[in-house]
């Protein structure tokens, strides 16, 4: 099956799920709707992963060539043989050995489907071996399932949003939603169940960001921007850290990148932090759905006052923190060891985020950070001095200016800072041989790239991402790189000093070499400047003539 056919399959699935779910839950606002859908998608995934492992075990119990084979000859009859298999299938060690979440009976999707109609109004459900389960509603059935999973999987403590009982909606609608999510197909020829459910999860996150507007954008960074940073940094091996992780988009794209390049996700360790409890939950669920091991700290907390990874020195740091965040420093010392290059102003956290990331960067590490365009030129409250210190210490490697209208939640123009603690010649984690880039900064102006995907949102094509990425990598390696007027320029530090340490790419890359008429920009500028000078001189001459004529007519001029 081709990629276009896969994409069509996923597009059809998105439309089906979104349309159907909207019909079932018209009374919920986006913030509630988000938890209802994503909690059930999570529950469906862990249950399906459990069932896949269960099927594998069943096949092994019946295969004489497997270590787990159970010989029917050792049992009195077929019934006792099957009973033994059923017992063995409930041994959790078989699941833990393949890193499969153990799912208790009351949390398995089939159990929810079998009982979502009977529990409306209350029911006493059998659990086997004489155990009973009193359930008062469909919401209670779901909350109980989530609670059972969390109890048996300590890593999920505090992660799952168990609030279905509190929802003020028709219980039968919740039951229908369970049946709807059960229709997500997993028998695709080339896409795994993890790929399909992960795609559904990501799609819903994006839709909720649109529905919630600015607030929703706090946990969702456009996929193409995340992909660009991941492609440019190439996090193949080592520790990957996001101190403002939102729903974990950078980690998901890192997994995609590693898999696409035949790497091993196990070679990467994931570390993240998030202050918003809801978003912290969504990120953890996102990782579990994709089978990615992670460390998000003990709890959701402020990166500034309760650093969850104080001793971490990461090989790759990537983040999209809130732009121009105010009042961020309450409880933060003026002498915090992170402020190596100057104390950031209370009114703007841009350089606080940047220095926090640098503090947690390993000696050979690299970072990519989305910030508002003002960070490239502002001199307010000492920001210019911090930027100068970063440049003078040769930490800035590349600056990328982005087009507008990329975000669902803000129209603030944005850029990407790429910093490195070691610009010496060395071998990157990807295996690429990097040249000595000390004393140089690459500027890329990508404002003219991309396309309008609808009336309000812009996006990059894969060709756009590749153009920026390949330019950066060619410059790093010193192979087939050339400055391109209007797009990219490799500048020395003394040139940055001449521009008063402003890092706006447009100042360095200039305009395109040719306008539409084929005339070189430099030649055209010189010609037009000459014409303008001549026109000013002619204007002055005519003014003198007019005044002379008016005076001859008796007017006082």
Question: What does this protein structure show overall?
Answer:
This protein is α/β, with parallel strands linked by helices and 557 residues long. The chain folds into three domains: 171 residues, N6 adenine-specific DNA methyltransferase, N-terminal domain (Ferritin); 297 residues, Rossmann fold (3-Layer(aba) Sandwich); 37 residues. Helix content is 43%, strand content 13%. The chain has 17 helices and 14 strands. The strands form four sheets. An eight-stranded mixed beta sheet has the order 4-3-5-6-8-7-11-14. The chain has a two-stranded antiparallel sheet with strand order 1-2. Strands 9-10 form a two-stranded antiparallel sheet. Strand 3, helix 10 and strand 4 form a beta-alpha-beta unit. Helix 2 runs parallel beside helix 11, helix 9 packs across helix 10 and helix 9 packs parallel to helix 14. The protein starts with a helix and ends in a 5-residue tail after the last helix. The mean pLDDT is 87.
């Amino acid at each position: 099956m081709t990629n276009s056919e896969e994409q069509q399959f996923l597009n059809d699935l998105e439309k089906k799920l979104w349309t159907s779910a909207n019909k079932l839950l018209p009374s919920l606002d986006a913030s509630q709707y988000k938890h209802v859908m994503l909690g059930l998608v999570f529950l469906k995934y862990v249950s399906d992963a459990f069932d896949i492992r269960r099927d594998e075990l069943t096949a092994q119990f019946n295969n004489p060539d497997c270590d787990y084979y159970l010989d029917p000859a050792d049992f009195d009859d077929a019934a006792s043989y099957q009973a033994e298999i059923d017992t063995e299938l409930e041994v959790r060690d078989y699941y833990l050995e393949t890193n499969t979440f153990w799912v208790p009976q009351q949390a398995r999707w089939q159990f929810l489907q079998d009982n979502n109609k009977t529990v409306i109004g209350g029911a006493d459900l059998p659990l086997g071996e004489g155990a009973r389960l009193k359930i008062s509603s469909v919401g209670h059935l779901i909350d109980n399932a989530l609670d059972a999973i969390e109890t048996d999987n300590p890593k999920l403590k505090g992660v799952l949003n168990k609030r279905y009982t509190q929802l003020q909606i028709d219980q039968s609608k919740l039951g229908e939603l369970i049946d709807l999510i059960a229709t997500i197909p997993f028998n695709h020829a080339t896409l795994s169940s993890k790929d399909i459910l992960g795609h559904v999860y990501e799609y819903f996150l994006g839709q909720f960001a649109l529905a919630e507007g600015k607030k929703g954008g706090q946990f969702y960074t456009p996929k193409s921007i995340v992909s660009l940073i991941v492609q440019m940094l190439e996090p193949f091996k080592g520790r990957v850290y996001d101190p403002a992780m939102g729903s974990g988009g950078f980690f998901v794209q890192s997994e995609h990148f590693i898999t696409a390049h035949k790497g091993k996700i196990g070679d990467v360790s994931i570390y993240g932090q998030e202050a918003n409890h809801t978003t912290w939950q969504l990120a953890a669920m996102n990782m579990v759905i994709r089978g990615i091991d992670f460390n998000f700290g003990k709890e959701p907390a402020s990166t500034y006052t309760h650093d969850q990874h104080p001793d971490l020195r990461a090989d790759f740091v990537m983040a999209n923190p809130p732009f121009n965040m105010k009042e961020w420093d309450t409880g933060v010392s003026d002498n915090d060891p992170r402020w190596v290059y100057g104390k950031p102003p209370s009114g703007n956290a841009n350089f606080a985020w940047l220095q926090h990331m640098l503090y947690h960067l390993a000696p050979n590490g690299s970072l990519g950070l989305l910030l508002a365009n003002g960070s490239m030129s502002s001199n307010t409250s000492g920001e210019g001095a911090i930027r100068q210190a970063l440049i003078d210490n040769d930490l800035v490697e590349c600056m990328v200016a982005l087009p507008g209208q990329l975000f669902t939640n803000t129209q603030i123009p944005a850029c990407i800072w790429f910093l490195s603690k070691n610009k010496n010649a060395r071998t990157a984690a990807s295996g690429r041989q990097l040249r000595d880039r000390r004393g140089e900064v690459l500027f890329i102006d990508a404002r003219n790239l991309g396309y309008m995907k609808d009336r309000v949102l812009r996006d990059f094509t894969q060709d756009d991402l590749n153009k920026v990425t390949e330019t950066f990598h060619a410059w790093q390696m010193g192979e087939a790189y050339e400055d391109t007027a209007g797009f990219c320029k490799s500048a020395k530090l003394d040139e940055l000093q001449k521009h008063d340490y402003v890092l706006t790419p447009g100042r360095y890359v200039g305009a395109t070499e040719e306008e539409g008429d084929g005339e070189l920009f430099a030649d055209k500028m010189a010609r037009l400047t000459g014409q303008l000078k001549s026109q000013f001189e002619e204007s002055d001459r005519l003014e003198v003539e007019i005044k002379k004529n008016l005076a001859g007519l008796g007017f006082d001029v």
